[in-house]
Design goal:
Blueprint (H helix, E strand, L loop, with lengths): L4 H9 L7 H19 L2 H4 L2 H8 L9 H5 L2 H4 L14 E6 L2 E6 L4 H9 L29 E6 L6 H11 L3 E7 L9 E4 L3 H4 L9 E4 L7 E5 L1
Parallel strand pairs: 3-4, 3-7, 5-6
Antiparallel strand pairs: 1-2, 5-7
Helix pairs in contact: 1-2
Length: 224
């Protein structure tokens, strides 16, 4: 079924009686998935430049047409199989006669980890106990980060071994040493910016990620 603009707006704003806000979220996800499929279809994607020019006659924005069209090339690189939808755990409910979506706050941490960390950059897998990895390319790597590696194990030289491993992949490890903090049970990745941690999960998939904006390095890896 093909919807015009008015019907599409009605569809994404509709709240089914049995599902409420959750039903509307599902509708919006279905719409976005089909919208992406349509936009990226061979019949439409080549028409995007002319469509953008038409849109600019009815949309107010401080972006110029030329700036908007600079992103056109990225559309051709989008893989529909990479698009996923996730709904925050929770339920619809009423407070004071007003409808709200009520998140399950106790589940949000695991929900976030499952989406952003545990399934990211797992296309490189550890092949043996010497920290050797296969050669598949990992996206979104930033090798300009400053890194410190600390050894919390009883294996002498373990931090230096990991330094060599990371530097083989283009990183520059600024410091290695022994960990002198409290006892830990698994590898820790301290970061100033949470996005810095993602690329290191390929090496330490079971690591715990911790944010520390006062860190002296961009990344500190405590090995266990």
């Amino acid at each position: 079924q093909v919807l015009d603009g008015v019907a599409a707006e009605q569809f994404v704003r509709f709240r089914p009686n049995d599902l409420g806000d959750l039903g509307r979220i599902q509708n919006q996800q279905v719409f976005l998935e089909k919208f992406a499929e349509t936009i990226l279809s061979p019949a439409i994607i080549t028409k995007i430049p002319s469509i953008v020019q038409v849109l600019f006659t009815t949309v107010k924005t401080d972006i110029s047409i030329s700036s908007a069209l600079e992103y056109y090339g990225y559309l051709k690189e989008i893989d529909l199989t990479d698009i996923e939808f996730h709904t925050m755990p929770g339920e619809g409910g009423y407070i004071g006669g007003i409808s709200y979506f009520l998140p399950y706050f106790e589940e949000l941490e695991d929900f976030s980890k499952d989406i952003f960390y545990e399934h990211v950059y797992m296309d490189r897998t550890q092949t043996n106990n010497n920290n050797n990895y296969d050669d598949e390319e990992i996206n979104y790597i930033n090798t300009e980060l400053t890194i410190e590696i600390l050894n919390a194990t009883t294996t002498a030289g373990y931090a230096a071994q990991n330094k060599d491993m990371l530097e083989e992949d283009g990183y520059s490890v600024k410091s290695v040493g022994n960990y002198t903090g409290k006892s830990i049970s698994n590898t820790l990745i301290y970061v100033k910016d949470i996005d810095y941690a993602k690329q290191f999960l390929q090496y330490y998939p079971g690591a715990q990620i911790l944010l520390d904006k006062e860190l002296g390095f961009d990344v500190q890896i405590v090995l266990k």
